[in-house]
Amino acid sequence: MRLYATAIIQPPLQLPVCLSLWPRRVVWLLLAAAFSGAAWVEAGVAEGQVASIHIANHAGYVLFDLDAEIKNSPRCNTRRKFAIDLGKPGGRAAYSALLEAKRGSFKVSVVGLNTCGVHLESEGVKTLEVQ
Questions:
Q1: What is the DSSP string of 35-87?
Q2: Phi, psi (degrees; rounded to nearest 5) at 60
Q3: Are 102 and 50 contacting, i.e. CB atoms less than 8 angstroms apart?
Q4: Domain boundaries, the chain
């Protein structure tokens, strides 16, 4: 059995000159935005000991902060904390590692997601490393 694919080929649409330049302008604007400084925003980064852990039994997340300042944190992070989503893969493992770090006074390195999707006023956690 052979399968054949057919395509309908239509002649190109004739656009006025002002509209034919439009796609090129859009491409240039997208390239300019991609390589501008605003497009290369880093996520929040912090390294230190766990200062506090906030757990709400009605929510599916845990908030925590370190004894160090968060660098490059997004504007939405008004609480200056990180948030772990317990419903995501790895969320409970990250929470368990966080508890061990707090109990043992270990140093923790955190890289954020650069968004506040888990909690509206705290940056989500991308990676958490206990040292």
A1: TSGGGGPPPPEEEEEEEEEEE-TTSSEEEEEESSPPBS--TT-TT--EEEETT
A2: -100, 30
A3: yes
A4: 41-130
> Burial of 116 by CB count in 10 Å (0-12 exposed, 13-18 middle, 19+ buried)?
buried
Q: What does pLDDT average to over the chain?
A: 81
CA gap 131, 127 in Å, rounded:
13
**Locate tokens 């709400």: which residue?**
56
Alpha-carbon torsion angle 17, 21, 23, 24, nearest 10 = 160
% of the chain with per-residue pLDDT over 90: 63
What pLDDT shows up at residue 57? 83
Q: Which residues pair with 20 in a beta bridge?
A: none
- Per DSSP, the chain holds a count of helices (H) and strands (E) of 3, 5
In which region does residue 21 sit, left (phi positive, over 0), alpha (psi from -120 to 50) or beta (all else)? Answer: alpha
CATH topology for the 41-130 domain:
OB fold (Dihydrolipoamide Acetyltransferase, E2P) (2.40.50)
CA distance 14 to 89: 51
Contact by Cβ (8 Å): 50, 56: no
